[in-house]
Write a structure and sequence with these properties.
Layout: H1 17-22, E1 31-36, E2 46-55, E3 58-69, H2 87-103, E4 106-117, E5 125-133, E6 137-144, E7 147-154, E8 159-167, H3 168-171, H4 179-182, E9 188-196, E10 202-213, E11 217-229, E12 234-250, E13 255-265, E14 270-273, E15 279-289, E16 292-298, E17 307-313, E18 316-325, E19 328-337, E20 340-349, E21 352-363, H5 364-371, E22 381-397, E23 402-418, E24 421-437, E25 440-456, E26 460-471, E27 474-484, E28 487-495, E29 501-510, H6 511-516, E30 524-526, E31 528-537, E32 542-551, E33 556-559, H7 564-572, H8 574-582, E34 586-597, E35 602-612, E36 622-631, H9 632-652
Parallel strand pairs: 3-4
Antiparallel strand pairs: 1-2, 2-3, 4-5, 5-6, 6-7, 7-8, 8-9, 9-10, 10-11, 11-12, 12-13, 12-14, 13-15, 13-16, 14-15, 15-18, 16-17, 18-19, 19-20, 20-21, 21-22, 22-23, 23-24, 24-25, 25-26, 26-27, 27-28, 28-29, 29-31, 30-33, 31-32, 32-34, 33-34, 34-35, 35-36
């Protein structure tokens, strides 16, 4: 059977009492239709097996199936009609509809199967319908394997109550989504909506969800509470609680994020408008992450072994404010982490993501103290003063998968110690540009400078300065200089990569300062030393081969005091006695030597000294050959320990 389309709700007319009473006995007779096609332009839209039975004052109806293609439109439909509602007109129409429903006889309609098709659906959506109308209310229930939707209209109180419960795993089978989302959207959802039909435009909603999310977290719980204005499309979100527990999420194939919980809450009401897309007026959020760790799989040295590097991170609290449209979204945030605060912003516009961390300052003592429990590299650091300034700008094109990061760090007047290594007046500057290509981050270029007024590593170092740059992922020390042992050491153009080399130049090192840190500091000496130490970097560390040192003209002197210690050595080693006498007042004009050093700290010195002792040999020249091997790292460590012990005795006694 073909018929004209059903009347639109806008065409309802106010009914007279006579017309309304007509409904109490219509239909008088039972009826049966095999098929009904409401619109000749869409013949696939049809209802089948329609049965209507009038029993006393109640109508019972059953429908075998309703097939409806939502893509089919009438040829004269034109463009989509406006969704804008007129409040007074809609209020009047709603009042007429409620009056109409109240006067209808008791009615029960059962639809065995409603089958909907749409370009927006992945496959046919089928469900059954049960409608029951009484004098007090209209009840509608739609259900299928994915869930159930119930609608209850209270005709006496003029109230609407809607509730739907569905299983996400079942429902998403009908929605066109990327496969990656299927494992994330799980669990059960409950949505309820209530409205006073006398103020029909404003309603209240509640959304609850609970799920086990295998690929993200062990458990996810969510609750949203708010109000919705149909006329303006305005959503007022009053409450939001989102909690994830026991998160184990693979950021990449080699990096796993683990944290006990993540909580997202709404500190104050949010305002979102849906009348023309999604327009977020204000969406304030509190994000809490309960600490955790990043686990990174390392390349195995042996094929059968797998190494995992674990980097713990502390709990954090973020205050987030979101505003804008989905195609132009702005996020302002501030992060509280290890007793420090960092603020920044994030913007999304036309596939372009931009971010910045605002210029800020951190207390160096507070930062290092807070990192003690999480970063092994700073566990034996103690910082007494100083500050760190920071700033960051970044951009990433989501379509091209390319972007950049520009960072700036400055440290000012930092003082403290790392173990027994002391430092003060430490300042640094670092400006680095990173390049992003397909989620891989590389250093494109950068400039760094480090300056330390005073550094004690076992011997004092003053006015140390390092100027470096980064290019194509390689760090190059352009210049290094420091005041050491009364002289200066300098170095230029050293690439920080294996097998790179340069030369460390020694200028004007004081022999007397060197003797101070020897095994017998009672020796007095005078003279200036210069030298060149060829450096080579290896995978194990620093090597020196064929380094040379030599004394400046006119030379100098070495005087070994003839005290009890020396006299005892002379008596114990008679062959050494004459040498000690010569060194009691040795005037040298030549001092030259060769130096070698290995990455494990072993230093090897072979030196020649030419001169005279006017008190012993007169003007007769004497030549000494001197060789010495020692672990320089252990020597410096022992010197630092000795200095630390001396300072503690002075401070306490």
């Amino acid at each position: 059977m073909l018929s004209k389309p059903l009347a639109n709700a806008n065409e309802l007319k106010e009914m007279t009492e006579q017309e309304l009473s007509f409904l109490t006995w219509l239909p008088l007779l039972s009826s049966s239709l095999k098929r009904l096609q409401p619109d000749i332009h869409c013949p696939q839209n049809q209802m089948t097996d329609i049965q209507v039975i009038k029993e006393k004052d109640k109508i019972n109806s059953s429908i075998g199936s309703i097939d409806w293609d939502l893509n089919c439109q009438r040829s004269n439909a034109g463009q989509n009609p406006s969704l804008t509602l007129n409040k007074s007109q809609t209020t009047s129409q709603l009042a007429q509809l409620l009056t109409f429903l109240a006067r209808l006889p008791d009615t029960e309609i059962m639809v065995k199967s409603v089958n909907l098709r749409s370009a927006r659906l992945k496959k046919k959506l089928s469900f059954n319908v049960h409608l029951n109308k009484t004098k007090q209310a209209v009840f509608i229930r739609l259900s299928n394997e994915s869930g159930q939707l119930t609608v209850n209209v209270d005709l006496l109180k003029k109230e609407l109550h809607l509730k739907t419960v569905f299983k996400a795993e079942k429902f998403i089978q009908y929605i066109k989504l990327p496969e990656a989302y299927f494992d994330l959207i799980k669990g059960s959802f409950t949505f309820s909506y209530s409205a006073d039909l006398k103020k029909w435009e404003q309603g209240q909603f509640v959304l609850n969800s609970s799920a086990d999310m295998t690929l993200l977290a062990e458990k996810m719980v969510m609750k949203l509470v708010g109000e919705f204005n149909i006329l303006t499309g305005q959503v007022s979100l009053q409450k939001m609680d989102l909690g994830l527990t026991k998160i184990n999420y693979a950021l990449t194939n080699n990096i796993l994020l683990k944290t006990p919980y993540v909580k997202l809450t709404l500190p104050e009401p949010a305002s979102i408008n849906l009348s023309d897309g999604i327009n977020i007026n204000t969406l304030p959020l509190h994000l809490r992450i309960g600490g955790g760790a990043m686990q990174t799989k390392m390349e195995p040295l042996i094929k059968s072994s797998i190494r995992t590097k674990t980097q713990r991170f502390p709990p954090l609290l973020a205050n987030i404010k979101v505003h804008g449209r989905t195609n132009n979204l702005n996020i302002d945030w501030s992060l509280s982490l290890i007793n420090s605060a960092i603020a920044g912003s994030l913007n999304y516009h036309s596939k372009l993501l931009t971010a910045n961390i605002k210029n800020g300052q951190l207390s160096a003592p507070v930062l290092i103290d807070g990192l003690q429990s999480y970063v092994p590299a700073v566990q034996n650091w103690s910082v007494e003063k100083g500050s760190i300034n920071y700033q960051l700008n970044a951009s990433y094109n989501l379509q091209k998968k390319t972007g950049y990061v520009k960072s700036s760090l400055q440290g000012q007047d930092i003082a403290g110690q790392k173990g027994t290594i002391l430092f003060d007046g430490l300042t640094f500057n670092s400006d680095t540009d990173f390049e992003i290509k397909s989620a891989n981050v590389h250093i494109k270029q950068g400039q760094q400078q480090l300056m330390v007024d005073n550094l004690f590593v076992g011997v004092p170092i003053q006015a140390m300065q390092i100027d470096a740059h980064n290019s194509a992922g390689i760090t190059v020390i352009d210049e290094f200089s420091a005041h050491l042992l009364g002289g200066e050491v300098t170095l230029e153009n050293l690439k920080i990569q294996p097998q790179s080399s340069s030369s460390l130049k020694l200028s004007g090192l004081s022999l007397s300062e060197i003797i101070k840190y020897s095994a017998y500091p009672a020796i007095t000496a005078n003279g200036l030393l210069d030298g060149v130490l060829p450096l080579t970097l290896t995978s194990k560390g620093l090597n020196i081969k064929k380094g040379v040192i030599f004394a400046r003209a006119p030379g100098g002197y070495i005087k070994v005091p003839q005290d009890d210690v020396v006299k005892k050595m002379a008596s114990t080693h008679p062959t050494f006695a004459f040498t000690l006498r010569l060194l009691s007042n040795f005037q040298f004009d030549t001092l030259q030597g060769k130096i070698g050093y290995t990455a494990d700290g072993e230093i090897d010195i072979n030196a020649e000294i030419h001169g005279v002792n006017p008190d012993v040999s007169g003007v007769q020249p004497v030549k000494f050959n001197y060789s010495h091997t020692e672990n320089m790292l252990k020597l410096l460590e022992s010197l630092r320990f000795s200095d630390e012990l001396t300072r503690q005795i002075q401070e306490n006694y």
